[in-house]
Amino acid sequence: xxxxxxxxxxxxxxxxxxxxxxxxxxxxxxxxxxxxxxxxxxxxxxxxxxxxxxxxxxxxxxxxxxxxxxxxxxxxxxxxxxxxxxxxxxxxxxxxxxxxxxxxxxxxxxxxxxxxxxxxxxxxxxxxxxxxxxxxxxxxxxxxxxxxxxxxxxxxxxxxxxxxxxxxxxxxxxxxxxxxxxxxxxxxxxxxxxxxxxxxxxxxxxxxxxxxxxxxxxxxxxxxxxxxxxxxxxxxxxxxxxxxxxxxxxxxxxxxxxxxxxxxxxxxxxxxxxxxxxxxxxxxxxxxxxxxxxxxxxxxxxxxxxxxxxxxxxxxxxxxxxxxxxxxxxxxxxxxxxxxxxxxxxxxxxxxxxxxxxxxxxxxxxxxxxxxxxxxxxxxxxxxxxxxxxxxxxxxxxxxxxxxxxxxxxxxxxxxxxxxxxxxxxxxxxxxxxxxxxxxxxxxxxxxxxxxxxxxxxxxxxxxxxxxxxxxxxxxxxxxxxxxxx
Length: 486
Ligand SMILES: Cc1cc2nc3c(=O)[nH]c(=O)nc-3n(C[C@H](O)[C@H](O)[C@H](O)COP(=O)(O)OP(=O)(O)OC[C@H]3O[C@@H](n4cnc5c(N)ncnc54)[C@H](O)[C@@H]3O)c2cc1C
What we know:
alpha+beta, 57% helix, single chain, Butyryl-CoA Dehydrogenase, subunit A, domain 2
């Protein structure tokens, strides 16, 4: 384990451990976070939920989110560094995700507004052909303030895993325009200029196939006033730097993206993008936890020497670090695959299926590894770790949320399993991925479990997929190769 990397911040980990090239811009962004951003982020976390002002002085409903000025300053730094426009103008996903890694090292909640903005931009760019295409795209691509912000709202009161059963928002067409009525129960980056929203067109079939994806701007474009209302803001334990609210849609103007009957594909594309970002972000925050543990251990003395010199501490730190390195490699491999397949449209290729497999593995496993690192950091700080005046508790709070949003562990395990059952990817691994030398014994166990009736395979799913995620991460970390075969 390289201790100098823990002291060198997120950039050192990216370049020295994962072999990723960093431009001056990424390094300058990290220096800004060290000098200014990190302390602002702590202050914003302590301040808690921003304020929702629902009525203006004339008594009209406005539903404005009031942020501290430091929040706008913090958010603008990422936009100015190019976290959005590098994607929208040059399709440079790598640079955007590198900036995302730096952001999330300090504040994974703050990475959410950027993530949901590019996740909203992509389906509009790929599938929306309506008259307002340029207007919507350029709103989300601004280089200068005020930056346009996006959001992705699918989840309703009944729950987020089973969207087919629980999306009840109705969309009705009148004279060529769509009007949406319903509510969204977890709506992050609420207050966004424009959200992509899951809704069910009148007469559409029940279940997942009947859901379409719509663009919902904050302001009505064909009438005056707010297009969506914010019922309240959630008081969350973590990711407090992004406001999450409950949204009401009362005949809100909606702009249908692509074909209504293909909506579920667009929704899954949106979610998969955010999942890649989440995987990258949690590794960064987990790394922050290990750096905190290391700093603490350098000044804590017990039994005649510093904690950092105690063999048991060193052993545990090295174990967490190694797993985080593998998790980081898996996340960046997934990112490389995203770059390769993001323009694909349904019906997707087998390569897209492999990307989906990687995305599910990366989302659940990176979140788990990072949360365990944060819990261990709190344990290292021990009594002090339990006090809110010290930093470890925040990292745990942040990582509990990032483990759940963008789909819980159960969902990703079951979805990864479904991909493997559907597509014969395991024998094709060496052709899809140039490392490909996953332990044949593990592959054999997977094949045997996949051949079992679904319910009988349940006990094997998590242990086997955990080992697969770890194996792919470890191989990638060793070879430092993220390449994708043609
Ligand atoms: C801070 C925050 C912000 C969010 N922001 C957004 C947002 O902007 N947009 C948005 O659309 N959503 C958002 N969400 C919602 C998020 O996506 C959901 O919380 C998540 O998908 C899980 O849904 P749920 O909480 O309703 O749990 P449920 O779907 O009700 O699941 C309950 C439990 O059942 C488990 N489970 C599910 N299926 C199975 C199964 N087959 N077998 C066994 N167990 C199963 C789940 O893993 C979970 O443990 C946000 C959530 C949070 C916490």
